[in-house]
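Archive entry. Fields below.
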Amino acid sequence: MYLAFKELQHGKSRFTMIAIITILISWLVFILSGLGNGLSTLAAATMKNVDAQYVVFEEGSRASMSRSIISADLVEELSKQDNVNGAAVMGQLPATVIRTGDNEEVLKTDITIIGIEPGSFLEPTTIEGMPLDSGNNNGVIVNDTLKDEGFSIGDTLTIEGSKEQFTIVGFVSNETYNHLPSVFATMEKWRTTSFAAPGSDKDVANPVNAIMLQGKDIEADQIQASFKGIEVVSKQAAVRGMPGYIEESGTITMMLVFLLIISACILAVFFYVLTLQKTNQLGVMKALGASQSFLSKMIVSQVFILSLGSIIIGIIITYLTALVFPAGMPFDLDTKLVIIYGLSLLIICTLSSVLSIKKMKKIDPLIAIGRVE
Amino acid sequence: MSVLTFKQVSKSYSQGDQTVDALKIVDFSINKGEFVAVIGPSGSGKSTFLSIAGALLQPSSGEVIINNKAIQNLNSNQLAEVRLDEIGFIFQSSNLIPFLNVEDQLLAVKRMKGKVTSKDIEQARDILVKLGLGEKLKSFPEQLSGGEKQRTAIARAFMNDPSILLADEPTASLDTAKAHDVVKLIAKEVKDRQKAAIMVTHDERLLPYCDKVYRIEDGILKQVEHANASAH
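PREDICTED_STRUCTURE:
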């Protein structure tokens, strides 16, 4: 460790160049991970926030709410199943709303209406205003990004192309669905909005899109088998079933994986070239009696110190750049993700020194006598 | 007492279809406190001799005993250990480690063995002061003159308290005055510390500092008569 550090200190300019590249790569890794996290939040925050472990859909809907219509009457039977601690219904409907009323400024925005039973475990806690009230079917609680757009409590929203109206009674935070801010409405209101056209409910009694089940040890297969026309999947599968979710996170993940591989290759080649340059010096150290493990440790700790420093600087720069990103950018650095990607980068970079160690092992100490062919 | 013994040692390399005998049945031994020179034209087998004596190379046949330890059957890691414990090398072009200061050059030898203690630092400083490098403890190799570099290399060779000191053309890059200084220094340290030393050289002016002189030619080692300076 000491010798490795001394060499880094002595060859500052050489190692600084390698460090800069590692810093840039780790910077990009962390920014991408922040973007990926932000995008996946935007895509599915409301689904991810649901405090349930399993979701019941209509058979054949492949874990997508938009393809599924089942009856809320199932809740009673589902609640009686083994290990089911709670069940709640949910519906979704993308829509465009216009602010109507006395305001002179016209405000329009795209939202997703989420229908829930007021007071069920699906209802998020408001950060401002009142919760949903089953006595007030027009009241909705909405994501606080609408507040940034100029909406406030008491505003009336009309769905474009329809006569349905809502009144904002409260704000919630971090609730988006399918990249749009969530607007939580009562189940009844959601139904009248969603199935306004005759027959659109396919004659299902009390239609909903999905039923969320609480309970860690639920036997999904067993429940699915004992009911007709439903499928039961885990919440993770339901998140993945959101439109575009896999494609989006897959793209980011692929870029991240490639970046990690590229950084490993670049570092491996750099250190390999450095090792080639140091052939004589390593030969001399071998001649003096340095063991393979001593020199291996020296090389590994050098790569380790360099990568660790670069990754830490990369993290700092990432947090600094996050401060200047525009507010609307879906960028969300998760400390857990930063630690995971930081560690993977560190491990991959350190592993890349294997190539240098292989080269070092082949160096003949006879080189010190200066007469090796 | 003999610290290094060659018994019927030979070394041959295969070059294509041919076999080259670099050393042909060499018998040799050296005692504590002895300073021996090996001379010979290039290609005579000098460096092969030195490499085997320094546990850098295994003989093709015969026995090599360094401080009561036969080395002909050791693997490369065990050889490294023998070098670390028993051999002090002084290379042709000092071969210092570029990123270490003079003091750390010596301590690096200790690091190869394990931890550096305050006693080791004291020992390193002691040796360096004795060799006139007391002012240069924190200097890097690029800041040293040729003679200073070679003295640092000599100091490094003594750091592991070796049984045998091996010097490979230690004066090749030095002018006459410096060359005499360096060899005189080696001779003095060998006597003071009771080490055995072998110096490979082609500079016959330096031979008077040695106790014995061997000539190697076409792989055959023979002792030659010479005038010993210390005997006068």
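CURATOR_NOTE: Chain A has a mean pLDDT of 90.
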